[in-house]
């Protein structure tokens, strides 16, 4: 086993405050399907990718792990004749690694998996990799014990094990991960992270399946993914939300609400607040629903409407002017971190800059190599934004969004336009004053909400059930999350079924040149959460109905609250799949040889109608696969 460096503080006991000590005593509840030491699993049909047009590409890239069945874990009282009942639990060695930015509640996944492993066989071991995937490759490990966990239960951060650059992508990295699993005689590897980390997990699982990596207990060598990311962008038919999203939104919403109160008190400032969340605007949407700022600019709206930076500036200026006519000279505007990549001309400029980076052009010379239109836009932008746009891109070729101060750019453009209107006499109000904030890293190490503590812990238990069932390349899932824990439904879905293939438009044709991956899911502009925002946007803008959800609570009136965007949606996909299977079984039991002619005719007519409709809805043209 790899040794731990002497100067490492990973897993060291924490100095806990009285509040943290009280938190550490909280024991999350388990849903009925995870209670006891018997694992009951029901397998559904083969899970296919929602990306109908890309399904063939995905199946070719993942021949060993695509098309595996959904798995539902059942409670003791469930009556399912063909359920797989697992009562024997041999000693296992399981590795676990943080792969991705720290997210509140992530450490409870380790706690949940540890408790599940020990409950099913006290001699089993949970091995943590120190320093993220770098520690995985270097075989730097620490055995997880009750003593280790004692000061990390229900706490924030990833400091129990740590993290680094976090990727398992190149051939060398995949080989190093496999070598570690073999050297340490691991029966499974659990990877905690977001869209990129779970894509890496799927690739590693495919490699393990292809090489038939052996283990001492006769299982296949297994890789399991866990949906943990504060951005909330790992969202699909199987994943309702991610661990950490609730906490981030609650912490940010309180800060935003404090700013709203300050704006209302001083009555002379507009606050431009940029929120973390990467390319998607889930955090901005949820915080807007919780705190009721005057405006929120969603990247998905901007992309859909193809709004330019000047369109957005005009939109804000018109709002400022409308409020001034009611003698209101203050306000709060929320801006998602990824907005810069949603504005068409800024995105195109970034792509050109990144292309020059890839060609080896130095930062000092990039501006002189830009095309005429890009050069004109670049020169128009303030010097501080130019410098930030020139930063080297992330490993996935996206901009360093946390470093690009879009809020300052918009505030400056709005101020310039309002001064212009004031000079022209089209605006007769007071001078525009702006203050800018970025709420980002402050919330990443926050104490997790009760929901994220419960969710992370339960997912840890689900991971053990997946391992006991011998499932490789699956993600742990929990649905019906808006209900009490006792009604949560636990299962597992193949990661490949969550994949899509990005498409790029090149002239009159659309070509598939992207690799299959679990891609970021943006805000659904047809969803109920966005609809709720739209219904209230006018009153938010003009009436100053600011709402303060208060500080994050572990007990009391705010402890049980869940994300509004989760609560208003009806997303129990796994539950509906199971319900459909029950209906089909019922139809089969009614319509069989010997049934009446009328029953048979009604069944054929109804099924013909349903299949015709579903065939149309399942076609690529109906599902409207997006191009880039």
UniProtKB/TrEMBL annotation:
GO terms for cellular component: cytoplasm. It catalyses: beta-D-fructose 6-phosphate + diphosphate = beta-D-fructose 1,6-bisphosphate + phosphate + H(+). GO terms for biological process: photosynthesis. Residues 93-463 form the Phosphofructokinase domain. It comes from the Eukaryota. The keyword Cytoplasm applies. It is found in: Cytoplasm. InterPro entries: ATP_PFK, PfpB_PPi_PFK, Phosphofructokinase_dom, PKF_sf. Keywords: Allosteric enzyme, Cytoplasm, Glycolysis, Kinase, Magnesium, Metal-binding, Transferase. One of its GO terms (molecular function) is diphosphate-fructose-6-phosphate 1-phosphotransferase activity. Its cofactor is Mg(2+). Belongs to the phosphofructokinase type A (PFKA) family. PPi-dependent PFK group II subfamily. Clade 'Long' sub-subfamily. Regulatory subunit of pyrophosphate--fructose 6-phosphate 1-phosphotransferase. HAMAP family: Phosphofructokinase_II_Long. This is Pyrophosphate--fructose 6-phosphate 1-phosphotransferase subunit alpha. It comes from Urochloa decumbens.
